[in-house]
Amino acid sequence: MPVDDAHLMVVIMAVLAGCGIFLRLVGKEKNRRERYLRQRLEDKILELKKQAEQKSDNGADPTANTIIAQPTADYKTP
User: Fold this and answer.
1) Is 63 left (phi over 0), alpha (psi -120 to 50) or beta?
2) Which of 11, 15, 58, 60 is a good FRET partner for 26, with 20 to 30 A between their CA atoms?
3) What is the number of domains present in the chain?
């Protein structure tokens, strides 16, 4: 029976190592995706600010095309 116990321990350790590696890869991908989306959002905000400055330099009202987000009555925060 000791041989079976050793084999079982090796299999369990291999499965746990595989799970650990998988979770590490998922965590890295999640962080990479968050950094990418954050950078994309910052670039978009910067681009919109530049457009607003150009419009204000041309004499246009910068608040004319401003969208104001208003929460709806059926919106519930998580």
Assistant:
1) alpha
2) 11
3) 1
Kindly state whether residue 72 falls inside one of the protein's structural domains.
Answer: no
* Residue 53: domain span: 1-58
pTM: 0.54
Residues 6+ apart with CB under 8 A from 52: 62
What pLDDT, in 10s, does the model give residues 1-20? 456 788 899 999 999 999 99
Residue length, the chain?
Answer: 78
State how far the Cα of 39 lies from the Cα of 28, in Å rounded to an integer: 17
Poorest-confidence range of 4-18, 19-33, 55-69?
Answer: 55-69
Let me know if residue 65 belongs to a domain: no
